Amino acid sequence: MALKSSVFRITLQVADLDRHVYQDFPLTIARHPSETEARMMLRVLAFALHADERLEFGRGISTEDDPDLSVQTLDGQIDTWIALGAPDPERLRKACGRSEHVVLYAYGDKALPVWWRKNEPVLNRLDKLHIAQISDQDMHALASACQTGMELQCTISEGEALLSWSDGSMTVAPTVIKNTGDQ
């Protein structure tokens, strides 16, 4: 019998001072059995950093041709493709061909520098690609915050996200590895 996804309900309150977005988002998130709590919470953080009424979660970790999150235009095209981890550069190249903006939130303090050195020449040619790293320390803190039914507040200022919940808080400052100039 296959394991089922765990469902998390999170009320996300976003106050993005950089983009002037102030809104509450009731999120229902399915966590695939192979997805860690840290990665799921990184999806929530990415949602907060790109909060928009048209922002949606992808079909899941097992669907390689879909973004983890995306913002679609009114005619159904993908405007912003958001991915997590350290995917194959070919996947990112395809994402750049299918959308106007591609944002990668990379993680893995030990593996990421090796991935970047190996793929930097190819990735630097992708003008639409923006890459930011989330530290292992921040990933661990995100995992410890995970709970179903939680209320999560996120205040964003100057690219940093202050997350707070009933019994804790943390600040996440993604480190830009590659910038497109419009992020």
Automatic annotation (TrEMBL):
It comes from the Bacteria. Transmembrane segments: none annotated. InterPro entries: Restrct_endonuc-II-like, YaeQ, YaeQ_sf. Pfam families: YaeQ. SMART domains: YaeQ. This is YaeQ. It comes from Luminiphilus syltensis NOR5-1B.
